[in-house]
């Protein structure tokens, strides 16, 4: 099943394809003809749309048409060309124009992922024998469309990442006057409520279990 319907995917591809630089036509030159041809940009584009739609990893969307390494390599190529950031903007703005983002309700939550290659945000993971990991704090709108994320070492608590995660809304506009932020019990603190109040947002926060005592 495609990440988004074809009637939405096609205009997205048309806009992004217009940004791609011209490249020479590939002609295999190896005498045995064993060099693999370049994976089509359209295939990589659809894979990256899946990442934007579901917030998933490259490994989880890799298949027989395209491996995770190829997706990363093409992503890096498009970053170098200065067009990768446009993909996210085109996808989000087109979806908002044709379908509409449900911004009156948003949700924030964190998860820990592996980071075997390290990186600036990697740190010891408390759930994976202190191997390197990354905490991803994800922001989604009311229908589950990812809007942005904040990264930190795996040992960081979700709550301090709320502010930089909500800052991702600065890239989107206009926003509704009344926004409800849905959070789990890990955010049940006065600091969280003060943060939401400062942004004129309403918090729908699950409560931490209270000790009843004996």
Report on the structure:
The protein is α/β, with parallel strands linked by helices and 214 residues long. It is globular, with a radius of gyration of 21 Å. The mean pLDDT is 87. The termini are far apart. The longest helix has 15 residues, at 84-98. Helix content is 34%, strand content 18%. The chain folds into two domains: 6-98, no CATH class; 105-205, no CATH class. It contains seven helices and six strands; from the N terminus they run αααααββββαβαβ.
Tags for this model:
214 residues, alpha/beta, 6-stranded mixed β-sheet, 7 helices, 34% helix, 18% strand
Mean pLDDT: 87
Number of domains: 2
Q: How many individual β-strands?
A: 6
Largest sheet, strands/sense/barrel: 6 strands, mixed
Distance between the termini: 53 Å
Order of helices and strands: HHHHHEEEEHEHE
Total number of helical segments? 7
Which shape, going by the Cα principal axes? globular
Query: What is the helical fraction, as a range of percent?
Result: 25-40%
SSE class? alpha/beta
Would you identify the regions where 5 or more consecutive residues have pLDDT less than 50?
none
The proportion of residues in beta strands is 15-25%
- Please state the CA-atom Rg, rounded to the nearest Å: 21 Å
List the helices and strands and how they pair.
Elements: H1 6-17, H2 41-54, H3 58-61, H4 68-81, H5 84-98, E1 105-114, E2 123-124, E3 132-141, E4 146-153, H6 162-166, E5 180-183, H7 190-198, E6 202-205
Parallel strand pairs: 1-5, 5-6
Antiparallel strand pairs: 1-3, 2-3, 3-4
Helix pairs in contact: 1-5, 2-4
